[in-house]
Design a protein that fits this description.
The complex is a heterodimer of chains A (263) and B (325). With 263 residues, chain A is α/β, with parallel strands linked by helices. Chain A has helices spanning 39-55, 70-79, 97-108, 130-138, 192-197, 219-222, 245-260; strands spanning 3-6, 9-11, 35-37, 59-65, 83-88, 115-119, 142-152, 155-161, 166-172, 176-180, 204-206, 225-231, 239-240. In chain A, a hairpin with a 4-residue loop joins strand 8 and strand 9. Chain B has 325 residues and is of the alpha/beta class. Chain B is 27% helix and 29% strand. Chain B has helices at 17-33, 49-53, 73-87, 98-111, 222-232, 240-244, 275-281, 310-324, and strands at 3-7, 10-11, 14-15, 36-43, 59-64, 91-95, 115-124, 130-136, 141-147, 153-157, 173-176, 188-195, 208-212, 235-238, 265-269, 286-291, 304-307. In chain B, the strands form three sheets. In chain B, strands 9-8-7-10-6-1-4-5-11 form a nine-stranded mixed β-sheet. In chain B, strands 14-13-15-16-17 form a five-stranded parallel β-sheet. The chains are: A alpha/beta (263), B alpha/beta (325). Chains A and B meet through helix 3, helix 4, strand 7, strand 8 and strand 9 of A and helix 4, strand 7, strand 8, strand 9 and strand 12 of B. Strand 13 (239-240) of chain A pairs parallel with strand 17 of chain B, so a sheet runs across the interface. The complex binds flavin-adenine dinucleotide (FAD) and adenosine monophosphate. Flavin-adenine dinucleotide (FAD) sits between chains B (213-215, 239-241, 253-258, 270-272, 274, 276-277, 280, 290-293, 296, 309-311) and A (14-15, 120-121, 145).
Chain lengths: 263, 325
Amino acid sequence: MDIVVCVKQVPEVKDVDLRINKEGTDINNRDDLVMTINEWDNYAVEEAVRLKDAHGGTVTLITIGDEDAEDVLRRGLAMGADHAILIDDEEFKGSDAQGIATGLYEVLKDLEFDLVLTGVQSFDDGWGQVGVILAELMNLPYATLVVGIDVQEKGLIIHRELESNTLEKVKLSQPALLTIQTGINTPRYVSIMGIRKVRNIEIEETDANELNLPVDQIGLEGSCISVRTLSLPPAGRAEMLTGSLDTVCETVADIIRKKGGIS
Amino acid sequence: MPEIFVITEHRKGKFRDVTFEMLALADKIASANDCSVTAVLLTDHAYGLAEELKSACDCVLIAEDPALGNYSADEYLAVLEKIIAQKNPLLTLVGNTAMGMDLAPAMSTRFSIPCVSDCVNVEISDNASLKLERQIYGGKINACLLMKPSSKYIATVRAGTFPADRDRGKNAKIENFPVPAFDNLGKRQFIEYIEEITEDVDITAADILVSVGRGIGKPENIALAQEFADAIGATVSCSRPVADKGWLPKSRQVGTSGKTVKPKIYIALGISGAFQHQAGMKNAETIIAVNKDPNAPIFNIAHYGIVMDMFQFLPKITEKFKQEK
Ligand SMILES: Cc1cc2nc3c(=O)[nH]c(=O)nc-3n(C[C@H](O)[C@H](O)[C@H](O)COP(=O)(O)OP(=O)(O)OC[C@H]3O[C@@H](n4cnc5c(N)ncnc54)[C@H](O)[C@@H]3O)c2cc1C
Ligand SMILES: Nc1ncnc2c1ncn2[C@@H]1O[C@H](COP(=O)(O)O)[C@@H](O)[C@H]1O
């Protein structure tokens, strides 16, 4: 089974004081942020490698990003992927989900595969759209929020996750596209040694020009959004408890006793 | 008069709350812009369901067919393509739910209508463009978007954002839409729903929940939270990553894809407060959050916030209660 996985590099923002530039157009400390693989995509790569181990075939990774995005590809190769393609182009800056899917489509349409995996959503933009748009562009059957894949002789039996502890079982013909939800597996640990081992695997690089992508379909020009203004959420309602560890814990203990009815 | 369409969502004969939340939002937009609101109902059995929608919109548009009993992407897309092409709604609202995340991006691409997902507010601006609010970076940044002019728009709406009042004092007319023949489908087939049943403790019954997030770091540390919970007679629950990693059973997970809880006290330890988590706990009577990150979104909904390493907090607070015994 030949599998293509779309992966994205996203910034790690927990414990980071995000700041916004004066114009409100972007985060202004972007260059200081540590980049990592999008959590959902990590599960997708793991799933692809497991399917390959069980059924044979290859795993190819694709990302649209800058040259640093090579890191997520190397990481995926260390997990067991065979090939990696980097679409590196400034022209994609400001793309909406349609623009990104269009870029991925231009590469995918020339590949042979049985299955395409994406994550459910990207942590930073959170569109939750690229996978399904790509499926539509490729005219592939698809399923979103996938938490279980059973490969059968004639197609796939998929478990989709719905709300309130309910799953939906669907059958898909192949080739198909699935958007992978966290928890579908336990992604393997990737060591620095592991990444070093794959440093000689060549990463194929391409760009919008080479893909004959009209620039008016990607980036800001291709986006359905004309103006984007960012702001920090207004201060919340929480009363912040400060002071020494002991004072804070005493206050919390009082709140618990009072509100919880504990004597 | 421009029209706003709401794609209703139901499962096993019951509407999902998001349907009425969207109808409330649609009504708000419609009153500000002199639009009418149509609820689109795809089903195998409209009787009853259509009735429930009547007081919340101006028109209920029904497409009834045995193949539309359960949501299935191919059939839904085939019907909606016809409906949208014929009726030309200015704006179509879809839930940002397991159904809407599956459906809306495909509608957008197949029908060539721009779509913005996971909106927490939608307005029509002066020049008939769409103005949207959404959150990015896990809720740490708000984004206000203005869409480029278009003759139609799709927006998906975050569940739980608007009140789900069913009665908006309307009396909708009912219209039946002829369902096209389903040709060439069958690449994706609905089989069944599976409800996960567990025998674990019921977190929805607890008065106090001590809830741990990814900040707990490793499975061994859960014992610290358990010890605290034991000292105050609480139950331990968790956010999704903790259940995903198998550190606690899935039945302990709070949130959209877990359980909705409403305890007297919810103590969130090392939980950032993603909206899918908030959806499951924001109605707790008292929320206490402990997080190292002063900008964690959980502080936007907590009543009491403590910026602290939970590994300092936990032993000390546990000690306070143990001393009493
Ligand atoms: C369709 C869908 C459904 C979902 N359903 C759910 C759901 O039902 N429930 C759910 O919870 N999530 C759900 N999620 C996932 C959700 O988007 C978030 O990824 C998740 O809630 C994050 O969990 P977390 O806050 O524990 O982890 P993180 O976001 O990683 O946050 C960890 C927090 O711990 C803090 N921290 C770290 N160390 C310490 C320390 N020592 N002391 C104090 N604080 C510390 C950090 O500052 C950070 O804020 C869903 C996602 C999708 C796409
Ligand atoms: N720049 C990108 N390069 C490769 N894949 C991407 C990119 N952006 C999004 N994706 C894929 O699409 C999924 C959903 O992303 P989104 O629609 O942005 O929330 C991600 O989990 C990735 O698998």
